């Protein structure tokens, strides 16, 4: 290796340490030397830099930490592969890119109550619980006239939402929605329909946070 310019013998461990000076330094008078790591120690260096001393940092920070102290061939590919195979990172870290579905349009509602959207405010304990044990708010938006209704509910279960939707919204407004959208998931929408036999809602449109599913 042409850029190796320093050797050091560790007599206690009977090891010949090899160093090289990086081609690109932060300062012109930078005289620091980077230790060349043998193939047998590459895994140990990556484990120490990523897990022990790095607290499971990402590829860029782990690579910077290694390059600042060590050198071995194909360091970028090996570090990337090492991090991708880290079990703790796979279990506890969310993917940086989430799958996104194609955008779509609802179309123009045929009349009042034809298309409504429902959502839950305060799910997960975001709102204080009232004297009647209501800790969430069900919001219902009418797409035809942009009118918004809000109803206090004790929880975000499908049965609770369906009961409120029928007894508080449909019975009071006399609008049976032909289709409705929600962001709680497909299973929630199906359970909601079954809870009060909303079979006349011909089409149910399901929306996720990342698009149409």
Automatic annotation (TrEMBL):
Region forming the signal peptide:
none
A single GO molecular-function term is: RNA-directed DNA polymerase activity
What EC number is given for this enzyme? Answer: 2.7.7.49
- Alphabetical list of InterPro entries matching this protein: Integrase_H2C2, Retrovirus_Pol_polyprotein
Any coiled-coil regions, as ranges: none
Superkingdom to which the source organism belongs: Eukaryota
The record's section on Pfam families has:
Integrase_H2C2
Q: Where is the Integrase zinc-binding domain positioned along the sequence?
A: 37-94
Q: What is this protein called?
A: RNA-directed DNA polymerase
